[in-house]
Amino acid sequence: MTKEVIGDINLKMLEEFSEAHGISGNEKEVSRVMKKWMSPYADEITYDNLGSIVGIQKGDPDGVKLMIAGHMDEVGFLVREIDPQGYIRMLPVGGWWGHVLPSQTLVVTTKEGKRYQGVVGSSAPHGLSKEVKEKVIHPLDLFLDMGVDSAEEIYELGIQIGDMITPDTKFTVMNNPNYLMGKAWDDRLCAAMVVDVMRLLKADNKPHHCNLYGVGTVQEEVGLRGARTAANMIHPDVAIALDVTTSMDTPMDKGKNGLGKGVILSVMDAGIIGNKNFLYEMEKICKDLGLDINYDMMTVGGTDADNIHKAHDGVVSLTLSIPTRYMHSHRLIVHRKDYWQTVLLMAEFARRLDRDMLSKLKER
Predict the structure, then answer these.
(1) Burial of 290 by CB count in 10 Å (0-12 exposed, 13-18 middle, 19+ buried)?
(2) Selection from 331, 330, 347, 329 nearest residue 339 by Cα
(3) Which of 127, 197, 205, 280 is 20 to 30 A from 28, alpha carbon to alpha carbon?
(4) Residues 6+ apart with CB under 8 A from 140
């Protein structure tokens, strides 16, 4: 039976966001992708000094400043060491679980932008002790096999210490077309959602009152750094951070939130307690639009909102979460319904946001 495809979603845009290579501190390629897709809907595009991209969609001259942010960086590695045989030792950038790495292919990007494929080495199970088989290998103990004879061949390719290493993964529409698989959904999926919010608002016949700042932040995976600098540059009145959360619907993860259930409002995480009036307003909009409402509460981990809400004298902030299977691995799976309902929610909030609403959000 053919499944109904949910949402007006540009798969080509998602493919380009997913397949772009850009770990923390190396987001330029992703930034160019975001600029390409955001440009038709932005009145102005600017950057902070760390490289976060900001697309401005103007409303009233004195309109409320609304910042919607998704981070552009992905987890990956840096070339840490090249041994005499040409094997590459890697330094993780962002959190990796050793179980997901052996025998996976990775791509090294050189200073000149050339890319070379390698495979993470692994041992054959034959003769391994039970203790070794059950042990998780630390990422620092793994190596990348580039299929060469020596370090000299590595250097001839132009590979050097500090070069970026990223997963070698192609975007895939799954057997049910509402399920989408790719790398870097954490958090490229949400950077793409920023573009779609701007697209929907641009298509409205009536302009919105707020001044919308659509942001692709940098260096989230290593300390939410771009969120801090972007928020200090924009000085927003209200902010929405978009990020993924663990989908709890697999045999390995049992919980309430899962793919295809719609909007997830984040009540709190390790770095922020969401503004309650903001939460209540989003609940109201969901009910008005007939969107599904779910909740997320995390005691570990955080999002860009953790730094944004502390900018200047404080920013009214909330995180919206998108459930994702297999986070921080080579291949993540997401659902179109969750993406689209969250885009619809944010666009409607931007339409309604004015000075009166801001006063209500700030009421203690």
Answers:
(1) exposed
(2) 347
(3) 197
(4) 80, 89, 90, 91, 92
Sorted by sequence, the CB contacts under 8 Å of residue 283 that are 6+ apart come out as 265, 293
Mean pLDDT of 205-229: 95
Residues serving a catalytic function are 220
The answer to whether residues 289 and 348 touch, using CB atoms and an 8 Å cutoff, is yes
Name the residue among 361, 363, 31, 34 with its Cα closest to residue 197. Answer: 34
Contact yes or no for 96/24 (Cβ under 8 A): no
Work out the pLDDT band at 300, boundaries 50, 70, 90: confident
Give the end-to-end CA distance of the chain in Å, rounded to a whole number: 51
Bridge partners of 318, per DSSP, are 240
Residue 154 near residue 82, CB atoms below 8 Å: yes
For 35, the token pair is: 């600029």
User: Are the C-beta atoms of residues 15 and 67 closer than 8 Å to each other?
Assistant: no
Contacts of 31 (CB under 8 A, 6+ apart): 22, 47, 51, 53, 72, 216, 218
**174, 95, 105: which is closest to 145 by C-alpha?**
105
pLDDT grade for 299, boundaries at 50, 70 and 90: confident
